[in-house]
Structure to design on (123 residues):
């Protein structure tokens, strides 16, 4: 399961980087609306906010009745038991970094979809 989530996270990061490149091209060539340009200039604030908020995402471990809580989404960064003891491993730091990249670049995908949306014809 971990490897499937890791593959999905890697594909998301690659897609988000391509979205960033496409958004820069849209902005440079002037295809975006004025509202889109404003959102593109401020996208990093939303991305940094998502990264900060992602640190606080916790949920119970699936199928576990002992009270373990998982930290990190979409990749598990750490787990804590009911006594507060943590369970971390060699994938903790890479998972945290991958989650941060995913959440930071998420506004890029939203802007990319917005740029692809058909423009209303001005009559």
């Amino acid at each position: 399961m971990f490897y499937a989530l890791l593959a999905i996270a890697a594909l998301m990061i690659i897609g988000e980087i391509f979205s960033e490149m496409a958004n820069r091209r849209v902005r440079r060539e002037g295809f975006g609306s004025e509202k889109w340009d404003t959102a593109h200039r401020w996208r990093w604030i939303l991305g940094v906010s998502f990264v900060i908020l992602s640190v606080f995402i916790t949920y119970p471990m699936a199928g576990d009745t002992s009270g373990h809580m998982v930290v990190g989404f979409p990749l598990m960064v750490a787990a804590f038991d009911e006594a507060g003891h943590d369970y971390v491993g060699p994938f903790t730091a890479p998972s945290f970094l991958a989650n941060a990249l995913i959440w930071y670049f998420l506004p890029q995908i939203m802007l990319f979809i917005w740029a692809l949306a058909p423009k209303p014809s001005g009559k």
User: Anything to note?
Assistant: The chain has a mean pLDDT of 84.
